[in-house]
Specification:
By secondary structure, the protein is α/β, with parallel strands linked by helices. It has a domain at about 5-150 and about 210-240 and about 265-290: Spore Coat Polysaccharide Biosynthesis Protein SpsA, Chain A, CATH 3.90.550. About 30% of the residues lie in helices and about 25% in strands. The strands form two sheets. Strands 1, 2, 3, 4, 6, 7, 8, 9, 10 and 11 form a ten-stranded mixed β-sheet that branches. It has a two-stranded antiparallel sheet with strand order 5-12. Helix 1 packs across helix 4 (about 125-140). The longest helix has 17 residues, at about 220-235. It is globular.
């Protein structure tokens, strides 16, 4: 059975200021999602599910359906504030979605096979998708999930500091936890973290999470139960969010394993508008190197 790719595209892009998920970065107008889907198809994924807000459905479908028809199965799921809240009464002034774990929960009715989850606005690279398919088809089950682990040095920026989810590993080499570290940069050849936490220096091959997860469908029931608890504890907060690492952490505490699946791909993404030229340049270099055609969908 071919695994499914789930793309988180329902974020409101508050820091970016516009719908960066559908911004053109490639030479033929390709979005970053186009490159992820292209890599997913050639790696062996059988379906792509877009998690979006209902108000953007027509726009997203008009962009992707003409390109993907006949290439890969598609589905569209809406993340709305009342999705899976089971009658919970949240503050009427709340506008922010409930976070990434809630978003993934919204695909429960359309995903019945092992699946991967990625961000819409991050470029992950071909090898990452190949590693994900291999893991999903051979190692993923109700007791074993996965996370694609990038070498920290492959995710640094030449334009300033970055924040990264640093993977702590247990004695078996599996994920123990993900710790958010901020203000990471290479200074005088040494990767340094300026957040006051220990260790201050990080090894170049430290594994970091770029929110590329691999799950068995058992994820859904577990997450639904956790989300109900989350709403009772933090649902009244206007900006509270239910994140995937929270679910993974509880899964590990209950005896589950999260394998760290290494990739040699380089990552890049767009958090701010200033990132756009670097993304365009990076894609152009990959095209010139023969990794992608100048026009993805011919």
């Amino acid at each position: 059975m071919k695994p499914t790719l789930v793309i988180l595209a329902a974020g409101m892009a508050s820091r970016y200021g516009s719908m960066k998920q559908v911004q053109s970065f490639g030479p033929d107008g390709e979005t970053i999602m186009d490159y992820s889907i292209y890599d997913a198809i050639r790696a062996g994924f059988g379906k792509v599910v877009f998690i979006i807000r209902a108000q953007y459905a027509a726009q997203i479908q008009s962009i992707f359906e003409p390109k993907l028809k006949g290439r890969i199965q598609t589905d569209y799921v809406f993340q709305e504030l009342d999705s899976f809240t089971n009658g919970y009464v949240f503050a009427p002034e709340r506008s922010k979605p409930w976070g990434t774990a809630h978003a993934v929960l919204c695909v429960r009715e359309v995903v019945k096979e092992p699946f991967a989850v990625i961000n819409a606005d991050d470029f992950y690279g071909r090898n990452a998708f190949e590693q994900a398919v291999s893991f999903l088809q051979t190692n993923c089950n109700s007791h074993t999930f996965g996370i694609i682990g990038y070498d920290l040095t492959a995710t640094l920026s030449e334009h300033g500091t970055v924040n990264r989810g640093v993977c702590q590993l247990n004695n078996q080499g599996d994920l123990a936890s993900v710790t958010e570290r901020i203000n990471i940069a290479r200074i005088n050849g040494i990767v340094t973290c300026g957040d006051g936490l220990s260790p201050q220096q990080l090894a170049e091959d430290t594994k970091v999470s770029m929110n590329f997860w691999c799950f068995d469908p058992a994820f859904f029931e577990m997450t639904a139960n956790q989300f109900a608890t989350f709403l009772q504890q933090a649902g009244h907060e206007l900006k509270s969010e239910f994140f995937i690492p929270l679910v993974a952490d509880q899964f590990i505490q209950q005896g589950g394993k999260v394998k760290v699946v290494p990739t040699h791909s380089s990552w890049f993404g767009v958090t701010y508008k200033e990132d756009a030229p670097f993304v365009q340049q990076s894609l152009q270099q990959l095209i010139q190197a023969g990794e992608y055609p100048a026009k993805l969908w011919i």
